[in-house]
Amino acid sequence: MTNPYRGLEDFRFWSKAMAGPPPGRVDPVTRGGEITQTDKVATMGSCFAQHIARRISDSGLNYFVPEGAPSDMAADVAASMNYGVFSARYGNIYTVRQARQLFDRAFGTFTPQDDVWEARGEAGGYVDAFRPQIQVTPFSSPEAVRAAAAEHLAYVRRIFLESDWLVFTLGLTEGWESTVDGAIYPLAPGVGGGAFDADKYAFHNFSAEEVTEDLRAFIERVHEVNPKIKIILTVSPVPLIATYEQRHVWVSTTFSKAALRVAADVAERSYDFVSYFPSYEVITSPAAGGRYYADDLREVRPVGVQHVMRLFGEHFFPQDRALPPIEPIGARVDLLSSRNIICDEEAIEHSLKASGF
Questions:
Q1: Which candidate, 276, 309, 250, 238, places its Cα nearest to that of 94?
Q2: Residue 272, Cβ neighbours under 10 Å: how many?
Q3: What is the rounded average pLDDT of the residues 117-124?
Q4: Containing H/E element for 221?
Q5: Residue 333: which of 297, 311, 305 has the closest Cα?
Q6: How far apart are CA 256 and CA 220, in angstroms?
Q7: The GSCFA domain covers which part of the protein (predicted)?
Q8: Which candidate, 100, 111, 134, 280, has a CA 20 to 30 Å from the CA of 90?
Q9: What burial class does residue 149 get, using C-beta atoms within 10 Å of its C-beta: 0-12 exposed, 13-18 middle, 19+ buried?
Q10: Spatial separation of the C-alpha atoms in residues 71 and 129, rounded to whole Å
């Protein structure tokens, strides 16, 4: 009987795809596409998604940012106001439920009851509970928060309606929700604003089944309003900065990434307009030997970022937009991550340190 593995592509064999190539040339991407010069490409998701956003922007392709900074706003001020970090000023979208609810809020089918929190600090003011760190200066009133949110959601609708490509980086399964209506927040109350009240808020760690169903619902909603859209899913390789579960943070990180990876796999198999880009696998690859992480074992080093971005360019960009091969592991590479990555999750430790942690 003929061996059924005979004649399969090299990428299906560990010895040829992983053990053979130099670490910087490992390429686990087997499904790509071509983003044309005129295609509108939008991004959303966790902190790591910002690398892809910047790569698209720096490539000269059409990075779609309908919620852009005013033309007379200085670049540093615009960055502090979260303009251009993603396609809209939604901040980090960590959980799939958060993305699903963002779509529903943008199209008026979900209106959370608890949407404004008091700002932390002596200066006072108010923050948007769903994007508490989009600007340094708090809003002056709840009405100002809601007016800005309404304007923001109009831009979010444009993203879902007009984008040709949407790159969504899945980040976490742990979140905090309203016990009143199930609204999911990017940060726990009391971290970036508001105050924690066990009667109003509850911790929720989404199961693999919940994440899969939320992602299915999100994808189908987006495709219903925009049948031409193509969606690229990635999973962030950045570990949790903290877990609320009564277990080791690495165990929670492993579960979280596994659940997100399962959901992405189910989505890719279910929809022909959805593809998975393995940034998580590149950074955590045994070939990298952990050298793509900084000394804190969490931050992704520039050389790892460049490996991911080169593969993204090779498989999705026109070839004249691709990056050159990366330098050997250990070389100094100042690409993308030389600029600050905005990460709402970092506020967890910042808040604790401010209180003497």
A1: 238
A2: 8
A3: 86
A4: helix 208-225
A5: 305
A6: 23
A7: 40-312
A8: 280
A9: buried
A10: 27
The helices-and-strands tally (H runs, E runs) of the chain is 10, 9
By CB atoms closer than 10 A (0-12, 13-18, 19+), residue 33 is middle
Q: What is the pLDDT of residue 350?
A: 54
Instruction: Report the pLDDT value the prediction gives residue 306, as an integer from 0 to 100.
Output: 93
Give start and end residues of each alpha helix (H) in 271-319. Answer: 279-284, 302-316
Q: Identify the structural domains of the chain with CATH numbers, from first to last.
A: 35-107+160-172+204-238+250-354 (3.40.50.1110)
Query: Would you state the structure tokens that stand for residue 158, as one six-digit string?
Result: 């444009």
pLDDT digits (tens, 9 = 90+) for 125-160: 999 999 999 998 999 999 999 999 999 999 999 999
Look at residue 198 in the predicted model and tell me its pLDDT.
Answer: 96
Return d(Cα 88, Cα 92) in angstroms, integer. 10
- Tens of pLDDT, residue by residue over 279-313, are 999 999 999 999 999 999 999 999 999 999 999 99
Which pLDDT band holds residue 51 (cuts at 50, 70, 90)? Answer: confident
Q: One-letter amino acid identity for 319?
A: Q
In the block, tokens 């002056």 appear at 140
